[in-house]
Amino acid sequence: MNESSAIQTGADQGFVTRSFGIIERSINEGRRSADFVASTEVVDHYGEVVEQTWDFTAFDGNPVALYAHDSTDFPIGLVTRREVVQGPSGPQLECTIQFSTEDLNPKAEQVWRNVKARVLRAVSVGFRPRSVRYEKRNDRDVYVLSNNLLLEISVTPIGANYQALAKMKSAAKAAAFESATTGDPARDAAFARAKAEAEAANIDTTDAGQEPDMNVKTILALLSLNETATEAEVVDKVKALEKRVADADARVESAVSREKAAAAQVSELLAEAGVDNVEKAKGAIAAGKAAVAELADAKAKNEALERTQLIADAKAAKKLTPAQEEGLKGKSIDFVKSFIELQHPNPTLAKTEEEQPQVNSSALTFEGKSWNDLSPSEKHNLFHTNKDLYVAMRDAA
């Protein structure tokens, strides 16, 4: 019998994680996927019930799977299925995680191998309960987390946020103490006594006959504090953890926004390309690159033909020496045109090689010296005093 005091602790509680187990028979090695039970309504060892009332709005915008709730690292895969189904003990959230390949994320490969080996057998849901109520189920007081906003799903060896859960328990219990109008005189009296005792001792209380979820030493150890820690130190530590959780939550929401923006840009690009999926877009891009390459090749061939014709025309007009002709090969069309325009016809140049006069190199001298005997300064002087002789001696040599 489930009896509820229907006490709400306010909207939008803190970020919470909860871990459950893997359904081992559902590993698909071919698809690199595994099916998990992500959440149930069974009362857990914290005295909590996660009601299977899920809001998937934020999650469906970016359904990545993480490892150990680390949103700063690359995802280890995608959650390809999530649905609430009827399980052996009531409603339960099931999911399928398809793990990334090693080339995308080496850690994803490590996690996948450990899942296959049954070393990693737990998943953990990261969510924000929008309400918490205090109920009595099967003669046991429990806290029911409901109207839950799913934010992420992680494969993790350990999955629980003790500080956030403890904070919500205290809030729910305080609300119960304040209301204490369940209609059951015995329960109302018990609430009143528990409230008075808690105020007198300045401690939180647990229900009679039940063991506390965690003792003080365990809580201090989880906070990385020693047993002599002061109340102020505990408060500072909890505030620091709350800030880290808030920062992580903000990063998740930012990542969701960026993912949606990127998806919108991809859709726009596909529409502009006139295709309906990325693979067709890749094919169109490849075809475009091939067409550009063909155009570039054709342009290069046309330029080579035009350059050859310009040089041939300049040679026929006695504007280029053989050395100049050789130097213009490979130059741009604009450069070749500009160079030729600056040249003037040279009567000493023959139109063809057959018409080039055969000169005896030993008969050509300057100041009694052959070309090879001239020093650089003498060649320079020859160029400025008798350019025709300079060219003839140089070409004959």
Work out the strand percent: 15-25%
Query: How do the SSEs run, as a string of H and E?
Result: EEEEEHEEEHEEHHHHHHHHH
The unreliable regions are: 1-12, 160-172, 201-214
Basic shape: elongated
Structural class: alpha/beta
Largest sheet: 10 strands, mixed
Q: Structurally, how many domains make up the residues?
A: 3
- Percent in helix: 40-55%
Compute the gyration radius: what is it? 42 Å
Mean pLDDT: 76
Beta-strand segment tally: 10
Oligomer: single chain
N- to C-terminal distance: 116 Å
Number of helices: 11
Explain the layout of strands and helices.
Elements: E1 2-4, E2 16-21, E3 33-40, E4 48-50, E5 54-55, H1 57-60, E6 64-67, E7 77-87, E8 90-99, H2 106-116, E9 122-137, E10 140-155, H3 162-179, H4 185-201, H5 216-222, H6 231-273, H7 278-316, H8 322-327, H9 333-341, H10 376-385, H11 387-396
Parallel strand pairs: 4-10, 5-10, 6-10
Antiparallel strand pairs: 1-9, 2-9, 3-8, 6-7, 7-8, 9-10
Helix pairs in contact: 7-9, 10-11
Explain the overall architecture.
The protein is an alpha/beta fold and 397 residues long. It has helices spanning 57-60, 106-116, 162-179, 185-201, 216-222, 231-273, 278-316, 322-327, 333-341, 376-385, 387-396, and strands at 2-4, 16-21, 33-40, 48-50, 54-55, 64-67, 77-87, 90-99, 122-137, 140-155. Strands 1, 2, 3, 4, 5, 6, 7, 8, 9 and 10 form a ten-stranded mixed beta sheet that branches. The chain is elongated. The termini are far apart. Residues 1-12, 160-172 and 201-214 have low confidence and may be disordered.
